[in-house]
């Protein structure tokens, strides 16, 4: 299994940020995407996750003929994608049912996943009752509850204290040791081995408009 990008154009709506982006990430490796605010890290991650179109070039997961990159990926964005008024258990159960795929086998049971994140016993609470760091960690439980070989993580540790960041680095390290691939946008080192880095530099930004910059169609 290998995640590859070739001659990729990174663009959002009608704005082209970078051309010719390329990388390759093997099993057991991570790619850290770095760069200042607004440079295009989240845009690139959303393209890899299939949430934004690829205007030019190619992103693919090679060596998994029966599964597309989107099917093989977990995407943890800036936001946690959990309903504030629903309990933690209801939120996580929804995600397991929504993402379950027999081809990948079963993940950890709900209570084991929350325990692994140091949050066992809080499953009955409305998600909105948890602190910002607890919410972030609970959102990570779905990475454990549903197997996906590729984890796409947007600033995963932004709300976490040092101990929680270290715990998360351990989970990511386990995923990589089991042959998983990680792509993470981050402003902080994640403490991982086998890491490639892709620094998006504003100096290299293309900043082109692909079409009428005032057109509203296609705003993602
Ligand atoms: N929905 C959208 N439609 C059009 N442009 C957007 C949209 N969301 C973000 N942008 C623009 O795309 C550019 C890149 O944003 P992006 O979120 O990818 O940056 P980033 O590197 O992840 O930043 P940060 O470090 O602040 O998270 C920014 O100029 C931003 O204003």
TrEMBL record:
<feature type="domain" description="ABC transporter">
    <location>
        <begin position="3"/>
        <end position="219"/>
    </location>
</feature>
<dbReference type="InterPro" id="IPR005895">
    <property type="entry name" value="ABC_transptr_haem_export_CcmA"/>
</dbReference>
<keyword id="KW-0472">Membrane</keyword>
<dbReference type="GO" id="GO:0005524">
    <property type="term" value="F:ATP binding"/>
</dbReference>
<dbReference type="Pfam" id="PF00005">
    <property type="entry name" value="ABC_tran"/>
</dbReference>
<protein>
    <submittedName>
        <fullName>Heme ABC exporter ATP-binding protein CcmA</fullName>
    </submittedName>
</protein>
<keyword id="KW-0201">Cytochrome c-type biogenesis</keyword>
<comment type="similarity">
    <text>Belongs to the ABC transporter superfamily.</text>
</comment>
<dbReference type="InterPro" id="IPR003439">
    <property type="entry name" value="ABC_transporter-like_ATP-bd"/>
</dbReference>
<dbReference type="GO" id="GO:0017004">
    <property type="term" value="P:cytochrome complex assembly"/>
</dbReference>
<dbReference type="InterPro" id="IPR027417">
    <property type="entry name" value="P-loop_NTPase"/>
</dbReference>
<keyword id="KW-0813">Transport</keyword>
<dbReference type="InterPro" id="IPR003593">
    <property type="entry name" value="AAA+_ATPase"/>
</dbReference>
<dbReference type="GO" id="GO:0022857">
    <property type="term" value="F:transmembrane transporter activity"/>
</dbReference>
<keyword id="KW-0067">ATP-binding</keyword>
<dbReference type="GO" id="GO:0016887">
    <property type="term" value="F:ATP hydrolysis activity"/>
</dbReference>
<keyword id="KW-1278">Translocase</keyword>
<keyword id="KW-0547">Nucleotide-binding</keyword>
<dbReference type="InterPro" id="IPR017871">
    <property type="entry name" value="ABC_transporter-like_CS"/>
</dbReference>
